[in-house]
Amino acid sequence: MKIAVDAMGGDHAPDEIVRGALLYRKEGGPSDLVLVGREDQIRKALGADVPPGITIRAAQDVVGMDEHPATALRRRADTSIGVATAMVKHGEADAVVSAGNTGATMAAALLVLGRIRGIDRPALCGMLPTAKGKPACLLDAGATMDADEHNILQFARMATRFMEKIHGVDRPSVGLINVGEEPEKGGRMQLAAHALLEGAEDLNFYGNIEGRDVTRGITDICVTDGFTGNVLAKGMEGVVDVFVEG
């Protein structure tokens, strides 16, 4: 497998991204890495001894954290995330990884690769630790803020395939995040989504779950709209900060 890495994305790029790539190869990572970005800066960070399995693809532009992602990608063809994503489209890489602007990564995937047939809106997947020692897939963690019930059904199907193929979970259970466990709880969207999920024979639908159930590991998949998922994930992050920082 060959992975295109956005070397200019993230804090302290490209130095930290290059350090991660070198560590990956040092620890026996099996995939070849293509570092995409400003070649002079990447070579300086790599140093004289470049290990086998790491190459460079030049891209001179970067989408800043304060830029509108889609506008930047449409106007500038030589951004690191745009070039890295195009490598996947053209069969030059099997996957793309970026620690940079999340919106730019999502926009590049939509503009360059396009949507999966039958999927109307994108979603972000967050893998969260649980009390049962297995991760739970939170979807959507912040891509589609105004998701409707049909989007929720599509998110559940994408997450199911992801958990089956990537994490080896047989018939992963799906929970709909809501304000209560009872089927009649929630607003119009939650009620409609519950009905669609319950009627989907290809899904192992558990029913409604509450926010506290996510880290309890009640279900393998916790599906919701992007607004709710993002607030939930960042709320958890804040709680962890309180305990870590005192």
Pick out its properties.
246 residues, 2 domains, 9 strands, Isopropylmalate Dehydrogenase, 9 helices, 4-stranded parallel beta sheet, 5-stranded mixed beta sheet, alpha/beta, 42% helix, 17% strand
Question: How would you describe this protein?
Answer:
- This protein is an alpha/beta fold.
- The chain has 9 helices and 9 strands.
- The strands form 2 sheets. A 5-stranded mixed sheet has the order 5-6-9-7-8, with helices on both faces.
- Strand 5 and strand 6 form a beta hairpin.
- The longest helix has 20 residues, at 226-245.
- The chain is globular, with a radius of gyration of 20 Å.
- The mean pLDDT is 94.
Secondary-structure map:
Elements: E1 2-6, H1 15-26, E2 32-37, H2 39-46, E3 54-58, H3 69-75, H4 80-89, E4 95-97, H5 102-113, E5 125-128, E6 136-139, H6 149-165, E7 173-177, H7 188-199, E8 204-209, H8 211-216, E9 221-223, H9 226-245
Parallel strand pairs: 1-2, 1-4, 2-3, 6-9, 7-8, 7-9
Antiparallel strand pairs: 5-6
Helix pairs in contact: 1-2, 3-5, 4-5, 6-7
